[in-house]
Write a structure and sequence with these properties.
- The structure is a single chain.
- The chain is built from one helix and 33 strands.
- By secondary structure, the protein is mainly β.
- Among the domains are: 119 residues, no CATH class; 151 residues, TolB, C-terminal domain (Neuraminidase), CATH 2.120.10.30.
- A hairpin with a 5-residue loop joins strand 6 and strand 7.
């Protein structure tokens, strides 16, 4: 089953030389004077273990997330099949509540974030389980119908769609993305073909599932794991970890046209890079896309990149040499934030910032994990209105089952 180790169109010689010059010109900056606090140490049961996905923030400052394993000790031969949790900030600290425990028939292994829909409910996916044939499902979690005064108050799960491992897809690993009409979109990695992008449309009190794009493999994409992002014109952008011209992954765009969606491949990662984009892309105000790649063959060329859909220009911002497994975050000043995961020679990964300065990008380490405070982060960095950063690690902490962390200025 999938785990936390889910595990470039050739660049011209002129562009390659230019990129090497830019990289050589970059200066690594000293660590910010910031403080990391562990908000919760997962211990497996009943709270969960291995939180791979990032977090969601509500208006009251509470956090919501998922763990891939743990929860029910009777599921998956004692490994547990995952949870949805909340963290509420009380006077005595952060209090964790378990909103959902996955046991098999209601799903297994949530790998993406849960997000709030316009109705105030949480929406998400699980990569496996559900009713037979048990290839994952899309779920909705709503508040309990009656007031619950316990620390852990289970929310009510509604299974919105069960994947059949046919042309509809299978193994949805991404979070979902809502549009302005209340419909939402996502990706499924498998199925009878090479993965799909789907749309869920509200119909009365229910939902209608439809595939808006079928991947066909090389030179198209294959295996969409990451989620999607919209631009202001309503176009969708995403990545596939495989496929593309060289079969090392792609960045794609989906454009609505006369009731269907057209897919131009914006970039295919070359075999010489030995990289795959497990992370999705992040859009800035100018329409540029940013993302990261993960190890695929041990070439230590994992990078953070920029792609301009308007010009097709692809640029490497930083050769990190460790796997970037989650989407980057961007602030109003255009600074990028992310995490990389590593357990090489005892390293546990970092939270980093990339800042645009005079045509270059300056890399800054915000925090290096030591193990006791977390290890192998695979989550997006969440930023609140006060400049605090939040995220998870898949391992480390008191019980080596992962943590939720906060970094304050």
């Amino acid at each position: 089953m999938t785990s936390s180790a889910r595990n470039s169109e050739t660049i011209s010689a002129t562009l390659a030389i230019t990129l090497l010059f830019l990289i050589a010109a970059m200066i690594s900056q000293p660590v910010h004077a910031q403080t990391l606090t562990v908000l919760h140490n997962f211990n497996g049961f009943p709270d969960g273990r291995m939180p791979e996905a990032g977090l969601t923030l509500d208006g009251a400052g509470n956090l919501y997330g998922t763990t891939t394993y743990g929860g029910d000790p009777d599921c998956d031969n004692g490994a547990g099949c995952g949870t949805v949790f909340s963290l509420k900030h009380e006077t005595s600290g952060w209090i964790l509540g378990v909103l959902q425990t996955f046991t098999g028939t209601n799903g297994l292994y949530p790998l993406g974030r849960v997000v709030f829909g316009p109705d105030g409910a949480l929406y998400g996916t699980v990569a496996a389980g559900g009713p037979p044939p048990a290839f994952g499902l899309i779920f909705r979690l709503s508040l309990p119908p009656t007031i619950c005064r316990s620390v852990s108050c289970p929310w009510t799960e509604t299974q919105l769609y069960d994947f059949q491992n046919l042309s509809d897809g299978a193994q949805p690993e991404s979070e979902v993305l809502f549009d302005q009409t209340g419909s939402f979109y996502g990706t499924a990695e498998g199925g009878a073909g090479h993965g799909v992008v789907y749309k869920m449309t509200r119909s009365g009190s229910g939902w209608i599932y439809g595939v808006i794009y079928y991947f066909t493999g090389p030179p198209d994409g294959q295996g969409p794991i990451a989620g999607l992002t919209f631009d202001q014109a309503g176009n969708l952008y995403g990545t596939t970890w495989s496929g593309g011209a060289q079969n090392y992954g792609s960045v794609y765009e989906l454009t609505p046209s006369d009731g269907s969606w057209q897919e131009p491949v914006l970039h295919s990662f070359p075999s010489a890079g030995f990289v795959s984009p497990y992370a999705g892309v992040t859009l800035d105000q100018a329409g540029n896309l940013y993302g990261g790649t993960a190890a695929n063959g041990g070439a230590n060329r994992e990078t953070v990149y920029e792609l301009s859909p308007a010009s097709g220009r692809f640029s490497t911002l930083n050769m990190i040499g460790n796997s970037v497994l989650a989407d980057l975050s961007i602030d109003s000043a255009g600074n990028l934030y992310g995490t990389f995961s590593s357990d090489t020679f005892g390293e546990c990964g970092e939270v980093f910032e990339l800042s645009p300065q005079s045509g270059n990008w300056i890399y800054t380490t915000i925090h290096s994990f030591q193990g006791s405070d977390g290890c192998q982060p695979a989550s997006t960095v969440l930023m609140d209105a006060n400049g605090n950063l939040f995220g998870t690690t898949t391992k480390g902490g008191t019980y080596n089952d992962g943590v939720v962390w906060e970094i304050t200025p």
